[in-house]
Amino acid sequence: MRTPKAMIVGLVLCPCGLLLTLVGTLTPSWRQVSLVPEQPSDLVLEQGIWELCSERQSSHQRHCGQADKLGYFEEVPVRVARGLMPTSLVLTLLGLVVATLGVRCWQEEPQHPVAGAAGLVLLLSGLLSLLPVSWYTYELWALPAVAGSTLAAGYSLVLSYLGSCLEILGGLALTLSFHCCCKKRRAPKYPPGPAREPGPPSTTYSNPWDVLEDERDGRHWKSTLPCDSDL
Q1: How far is the C-alpha of 105 from the C-alpha of 108, rounded, in Å?
Q2: How do beta strands 150-153 and 61-64 pair?
Q3: How is the chain classified by DSSP, letter by letter?
Q4: Distance from C-alpha of 39 to C-alpha of 47, rounded to nearest angstrom
Q5: Tens digit of pLDDT for each residue in 15-33?
Q6: Are 78 and 101 in contact (CB under 8 A)?
């Protein structure tokens, strides 16, 4: 049996979403702060959920581990993201393991209930990562920053968005396995038909004279074919 298309779509989208979410979680560029007053014009501050970095665009000198002087890490959206993003990554790994066991591409028949349960886990992981990303985006301009500076969303935030959406879509695709499982259960089961009684072996005739001879000898049992003797 071929692997259903929905399962293939789920197994393709979810690992891609996991990779994007992992990169977005670890990299320190959820928000970019530029044109900081009393600072060089080419200085860009990058803020993530784990550390703060600064980079000079002209010389590409980058320094991470900057001190949090404005209480950025104490804000609720940042603290929520630091808790939910790793949780989402762990759930995604767990869901992919269960999905692999359910799809079972090396077997003839996939396990639809197991694949559907994996889809629910992956759907939950996508929602857990989408929640802090959306909250952070909503509070992007409210988080502490130097007055008069320019704020913009960083690439880590964009990657986290894309990864969350891919995980949600992949999880929804795998949950369609429940439909196949319910469809098999609802299929009517017909009782086996009655066994046929063994009858005399069929005889093949090459000319009408053989039919007459069989009727005279009594060997043509239960014949319904017309012959010359019936006329």
Answers
A1: 7
A2: unpaired
A3: -PPPHHHHHHHHHHHHHHHHHHHHHHSS-SEEEES-TTS-TTEEEEE-SS-EEEEETTTTEEEE----SS-GGGSHHHHHHHHHHHHHHHHHHHHHHHHHHHH-TTSSS--HHHHHHHHHHHHHHHHHHHHHHHHHHHTTTTS---TT-EEEE-HHHHHHHHHHHHHHHHHHHHHTHHHHHHHHHHS--PPPPPPPPP-PPP---SSHHHHHHHHHHT--TT--S--GGG-
A4: 17
A5: 999 999 999 999 999 999 9
A6: no
Task: Give the relative orientation of helices 112-138 and 155-175 as an angle to the nearest 10 degrees.
Answer: 150
User: What mean pLDDT, rounded, does the chain reach?
Assistant: 82
- Kind of pairing, strands 43-47 and 52-56? antiparallel
Q: How do residues 56-86 score in pLDDT, each as one tens digit?
A: 888 888 889 888 889 999 999 999 999 999 9
The pLDDT of residue 65: 87
The two tokens of residue 84 are: 């939910």
The residues, any chain, with a CB within 8 Å of residue 73's CB and separated by 6 or more, are 79
In whole angstroms, give the CA distance from residue 227 to residue 212: 8
φ/ψ of residue 37, rounded to 5: -60, 145
Reading the block at residue 121, the tokens are 């886990």
Distance CA 138, CA 133 (A): 9
| 69-78, 106-115, 206-215 — most confident range | 69-78
